[in-house]
Write a structure and sequence with these properties.
By secondary structure, this protein is of the alpha+beta class. It is built from 4 helices and 5 strands; from the N terminus they run E-H-E-E-H-H-E-E-H. It folds into 2 domains: 20-55 and 137-158, 2-Layer Sandwich (Alpha-Beta Plaits); 62-133, no CATH class. 47% of the residues lie in helices and 22% in strands. A 3-stranded antiparallel beta sheet has the order 1-5-2, with helices on one face. The protein has a two-stranded antiparallel sheet with strand order 3-4. Helix 2 packs antiparallel against helix 3. The two termini are 41 Å apart. InterPro entries: GSP17M-like_dom.
């Protein structure tokens, strides 16, 4: 038997849970609803696990990247940083200064613009699109520790 990784978080399984299968569901929210029903009936939910089977990585392309998008994104994100920095500096000074606040926003926007355009220039032609990635499962099983299956089925039968 191997020891768990020293970087493993307490309470997080280091292997796939084995035991009795309470049910198989097409979506995670369906499995979650069953676990919620068990929790509301005071079932010891620490004896359960939701296991996703048949994992697939899905990347949805959201838009094409361009110099204009990179510039706008950099200005907006930098301006937000400048707003927070400007507010922080304003709270530290004895009197509120609109000039200091505006300078912080402007400097933040300029810095964000520069960094975003620099990053876009480095990655250009390697990846000219933006996307969102997600891992989806073909189905989700609720797995219980051995000896709890009958009790869970009884709880679900009593609490529809």
């Amino acid at each position: 038997m191997t020891s768990p990784s020293p970087f493993a978080r307490p309470g997080v399984p280091t292997s796939v849970p084995h035991g009795d299968v309470l049910g198989t569901y097409d979506s995670y929210p369906e499995a979650q609803k069953v676990v919620d029903r068990l929790a509301k009936a005071d079932f010891p939910v620490a004896k359960l696990a939701i296991v996703g089977n048949g994992l697939t990585s899905v990347e949805v392309i959201t838009r094409k990247r361009s110099w204009n998008r990179a510039a706008l994104s950099g200005i907006l994100s930098g301006a937000w940083l400048g707003i927070f920095l400007g507010l922080f500096l304003s709270f530290l000074s004895p009197t509120f200064s609109w000039q200091l606040f505006a300078a912080a926003v402007f400097i933040g926007a300029a810095l964000g613009l520069f960094l975003q355009l620099f990053g876009y220039a480095l990655s250009r032609r390697n990846r000219d699109f933006e996307s969102v990635s997600q891992v989806l499962a073909a189905n989700y099983q609720i797995v219980l520790e051995p000896g709890f299956l009958t009790r869970a089925q009884d709880v679900l039968a009593r609490n529809p």
